[in-house]
Fold:
Amino acid sequence: MIELSGLTKKYGNFTAVDGIDLKVPRGELFGFLGPNGAGKTTTLRMIAGILKPTAGSVRIAGIDLAADPIAAKAQLGFIPDRPFIYEKLTGTEFLRFVAGLFGQAGPDVEHRARELMALFDLEEWRDELVESYSHGMRQKLIISSAFVHRPAVIVVDEPHVGLDPKSIKILRDLFKEYTRRGHTIMMSTHTLEAAESLCDRIAIIHAGRIAACGTMDELQAGAAEGRGLEEIFLRLTGQRAARDLMDVLDA
Ligand code: ATP
Structure:
């Protein structure tokens, strides 16, 4: 469903994403982990077609993004880490607007918009301007907007940020059910517990390259001593322990 071949992004001499090859099949909930600056957002923005790769290709549902961007993007819902949202629309108008971008309108869209807003406890706010929404409410509206046109693939950058525990539970159930029904979700997250409990497969990216990729069992089998995802993550990404710093600080 998502196919990356040699995907590369350079900023000047700096290589942010370094030749990533990856296949995420239909119906998979795929986790994309990595330390700050590893290249997760850059990769997801290239998949979403809002950042041009320096080299390599992206295929969505078999369609080459560079060759036919409109057809490829029609299959896609994107939840960015720093979303732009029109403040002067109501929640319902925003969802209607997004569905309209994908050529969808009418009773089905209205129904889905209502149901998504109800799911995220936004019902009472649906006719209020987005400018009056809290951070978490905006995040829930953005998440709803990625589902409203029922895309085959959803790409989501850090979905948990700003959500309360109840909303996180709803989000997880929604992601699980959506993939169970044959859609595909690729999600970056810093919440290792979410990746471990939710994702069918996980890739750990470090310095623009995939350091490991597989199911939790496969990642554990490939790790000499590490058992939990946190240990595997820390070892693969070479994180230093705070106690080393204490030596430097002489504290
Ligand atoms: P985080 O977990 O902190 O969000 P990330 O894995 O999403 O990190 P990216 O945002 O993809 O990381 O950034 C990867 C690297 O590319 C970083 O070193 C970043 O500084 C660099 N980078 C990103 N955007 C630009 C840009 N527009 N110009 C120059 N360098 C950039």
